[in-house]
Amino acid sequence: MTSTPPGRTTPARPPAELRRSLGVVDGVAIAASSTAATTSIAIGMGTIAATVGLQAPALMLLAFLPVLGIASAYARLNRSEPNCGNGYVWVGKSLGPWPGFLTGWVTIVGTVIFLAFTGAVTGSVVLIFANKAGLNSLAGISLDPQSTAVSTAVGLVVLAAVTVLAVTGVRSATRLQFGLLVFEYAVLLFFCTWALVTGRQEFSLSWFNPFEISSGKAFAQGLVLAVFFFWGWDAAFSVTEETKSPEDSARGGFIALFAMLGLFIFASVAFQREMSLPELIKNGPQALPYLGAKLAAEPWASLPLLALMFSAVASVQSSVIPTARGLLAMGRDRTMGRVWTRINPKYGTPAAGTVIVMSIAAGIAGLAVVIPKLSDMLLAAVNAIGLVVALYYGLTALACAVRFRAARHEGPREALLAIGVPAASGTILLGLGVYLGYSYLTMSDHFELSPDNGWFMLSLPAAIVIGGFVMAAVAKYGRRSPYFTTGHGTDADALALPMDRTPA
């Protein structure tokens, strides 16, 4: 046994670091799982049909264009400054610390809300399987898949299991996600191909005509919903400090994004070939299981339901990964507490932050029981998060245009790619968000807890933004974060915070 010589101090143990173990395939798995194509198709096709009728294929194509422009902005910014805080760091440096903090804040809060509601979706699917197995009640409690309370309770169990997987290693988590993706996409493609070939609804090129949408409000709401379908591909950039090369993050995000476009258009056409518009709207969040039951007998009819459950589980797991890492970036800038910077020395992951994020999501899920029907809860969440996504995507794209504004001297092509495309994409999404927010404000004259009430639909994203400004003020004046002096995020290699007396 050795002792420290007199007059000397014991050397400080080097801080634990994030492990660079991920490649392109892992980035694809994280981005695709976070996008959750199967879940989006299953619960979103009915919603988008109720908004824009049979023009879903047209909106998928239109929504893809600004999203692609924003993806190119992410890739360019990531090459310039790889950081797990991505938009929070990039916007802070280019547009200022207040919009930068707001970008990080709305990204995190929107994802936490998504985690809470996706947990309820997963619980609902588990309950459907229980009903199929003949288990309709337990300890006197009805196992009703349409019950928000019961679905949420089951979903909380799933959240706990996913938390363990996310804590014990991101590489093992991505491998599981990749396996789930292969299964769910195989099932989705099989049933959609079947519907496309045998469907009795006549195919029409008008499905790709956005001018047949009934109103500007319906178009804006539908386009925001379609953007929400693509939401999640940017998760690949949150693990840029854990990838072997920053370029791997961009490749993974782009591959997942183009794959999602193909799946969304293919599925929207297939659904409309098999189901009439009233039929599609009626089945809403159960559209994919309904399709399976309509086309096949048991046990094959349950395969789409199983794919939906796998998609929801993978989506929850892949969503908590970027959220914990975004909070890590904010924590090491002291805009958030130091607890978020704790890296588990055994697993090389932000374990404490992951557990806290999931605990907050579980608490929100518990509060969601005030909305009696799961479908109402889903509709409210999708619309609210769509506005939040439009905000932080738009700000990040504008940050790219500002940062690389010198490219205007490098020729028309470089100016277009570095400035024009990101600026146009960001402006489109921010404009859509403002228009849709105004339409929500004017569609009702009172507040009511209902997805049909405009004030209610607007209240959640408004509360998130206001909360962001409050937390930014706390970070600047309470924590005295240097981020608000420089607008620069902490360097990716500087994971240890300096000693300070700011609150945790």
TrEMBL record:
<keyword id="KW-1133">Transmembrane helix</keyword>
<feature type="transmembrane region" description="Helical">
    <location>
        <begin position="58"/>
        <end position="77"/>
    </location>
</feature>
<feature type="transmembrane region" description="Helical">
    <location>
        <begin position="349"/>
        <end position="371"/>
    </location>
</feature>
<feature type="transmembrane region" description="Helical">
    <location>
        <begin position="455"/>
        <end position="475"/>
    </location>
</feature>
<feature type="transmembrane region" description="Helical">
    <location>
        <begin position="252"/>
        <end position="271"/>
    </location>
</feature>
<feature type="domain" description="Amino acid permease/ SLC12A">
    <location>
        <begin position="35"/>
        <end position="438"/>
    </location>
</feature>
<dbReference type="Pfam" id="PF00324">
    <property type="entry name" value="AA_permease"/>
</dbReference>
<protein>
    <submittedName>
        <fullName>Amino acid transporter</fullName>
    </submittedName>
</protein>
<dbReference type="InterPro" id="IPR050367">
    <property type="entry name" value="APC_superfamily"/>
</dbReference>
<keyword id="KW-0812">Transmembrane</keyword>
<feature type="transmembrane region" description="Helical">
    <location>
        <begin position="416"/>
        <end position="435"/>
    </location>
</feature>
<dbReference type="InterPro" id="IPR004841">
    <property type="entry name" value="AA-permease/SLC12A_dom"/>
</dbReference>
<feature type="transmembrane region" description="Helical">
    <location>
        <begin position="218"/>
        <end position="240"/>
    </location>
</feature>
<feature type="transmembrane region" description="Helical">
    <location>
        <begin position="28"/>
        <end position="52"/>
    </location>
</feature>
<feature type="transmembrane region" description="Helical">
    <location>
        <begin position="377"/>
        <end position="404"/>
    </location>
</feature>
<feature type="transmembrane region" description="Helical">
    <location>
        <begin position="98"/>
        <end position="129"/>
    </location>
</feature>
<feature type="transmembrane region" description="Helical">
    <location>
        <begin position="305"/>
        <end position="328"/>
    </location>
</feature>
<feature type="transmembrane region" description="Helical">
    <location>
        <begin position="180"/>
        <end position="198"/>
    </location>
</feature>
<feature type="transmembrane region" description="Helical">
    <location>
        <begin position="149"/>
        <end position="168"/>
    </location>
</feature>
<keyword id="KW-0472">Membrane</keyword>
